[in-house]
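Hey, can you fold this one?
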Amino acid sequence: MKKSIENFLIFSLVLLLFLSCSKKEAKTSYPNESSFCNPLNLNYRFQLTEPSRREAADPSVILFKNKYYMFLSKSGGYYVSDDLVSWSLIISTDLPIEEYAPTAVVMNDTVYFMAIDQKIYKSADPMKGKWQIAQDSLGIRTLDPALFLDDDGRLFLYHGLHPRLPIRGIELDAKTLLPIGDEVKILNTNKEIYGWERSGDYNNGTNKKPWLEGAWVTKHKGIYYMQYSVPGTQFKSYADAVYVSNSPLGPFQLAEHNPFSYKPEGFIAGAGHGSTFQDKYGNYWHAATMVIAVKNRLERRIGLFPAFFDKDGTFYTYTAYGDFPHKMPQKKMSGPEDYQPEWMMLSYNKPVEVSSALSDHSKEYAVNEDVRTYWSAETGDKGEWIMVDLQNKCKIGALQINFTEEGTTLLGRSEGIYYQYLLEYSDDKKNWKTLVDKTKNTVDSPHDYIELPNQVSARYVRLINYRVPDGKFAVSGFRIFGKGKGQLPKEASSFKLVRDVTDACNVSLTWEKVPDAVGYNIRYGTKPDKLYQNYQVYDSDSLTIHSLNSLQDYYFTIDAFNEQGITLGEKVLESKCK
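Sure. Predicted structure:
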């Protein structure tokens, strides 16, 4: 009898612990830094199928009771934050967390959630992970759903995921959550005219039809802004575009500024299938899917970018230097001028030394600003290291260490998935001082971003492995930010362009390299004072952009940047569509 009671008590304790983990917040705290760096440093889950790789995508972000909640595809839970910088994971067994493309909306002091399982769930306290079914079946088949609550209390559902079928919309009864009336066709693709809808990393694939998906609606001053994603989640060109209407079900017309959210280059590219929300200060943000797609085409991460409405109601996402550190605003921003990089890139293509390297993952890949390539040591043993020579003594303000999976077999979430390491700095490669000590770390931070409490002057920075959760010690980006010595770069000269007369979706740009520039940011748009698009390149003197609207004229300028900062271009060139 005594043994039976003991077994019952043990079983009850285990069950209680399981339910506690399932229903309450599973803390994954990060340092309370005032800046952040894309991709967001979430504890991205290893997927449940081989190959071993992490994934999260299709973010839906809401502000509810002064907290931000972010719902993601295939993440084993959802995230909560007080400040958009530090995020904690909440695990719930009540939601279909293995489905793709979740959506959420706040209505009547309650959060409503939906994925592609055709059910709607609700919770008045999502912090506890407790949800219940609000509607068991809508009676219509939906893919990539998006819920939108109008300011008059009417509720709408938009959905669509197909290379040939349009995005559709329908009104739902706000009480029963059942459809009202018939579905309406909202929009479809036209890749012959709209270059951003063409497939490929650089929108240069003209044969395949784009995947049309990821609907999301934002209302501003009586106008409905319908956002949608193309051309496919595996491409660096993954973007959101926007249509506008005076009515929630249209008819919708293509906005003049497109794509709405676009980041085709940089350390990590992609800014598609996202959601737009307002923060506590009234700023608009666009949370979006960023692309790796090396081990699997669905290998993805999450980025956060500010969005703005100009005085004419033009809606755009600001992605310039979108994977550099930025301070999280603590007030209402007036425009991109209030959101500039906190520190500049110091480590791009700098000399590197390592303890060892696999033949096909050489040391240069850790500093080439490309998340799709990576350096890997021969082992995951304690003591493997990588060192970057900044070539001059620089002021270091922040670092981002992007670990990657080489030789891992991990699937799902489990105890022991975290990295331990030591960061050191030196002026002579002989005398080393500790920069950051994470040798006792137990938090999973695959894109670990560290804002230093005080800037440090150094020439050499060394990363020493103490522990990896599995596989080898591998890094896709050992990124060091701060300020170097010298002057700002000169303005790029001899800036020229040629619009393709046979296909006006394309324009070719050339310029003379600036000797002290690290890279260039091309700003362009459909009016000289609306250069809202950004295309960032490193160490180049030419670029062909394939993502234009072939029926529109465009204007271009080019900025140069280096380790000291940014020199804005003054010369603006016009490109006629005919």
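The domain at 493-575 is CATH 2.60.40.10 (Immunoglobulin-like). Let me know if you want another pass with a different chain boundary.
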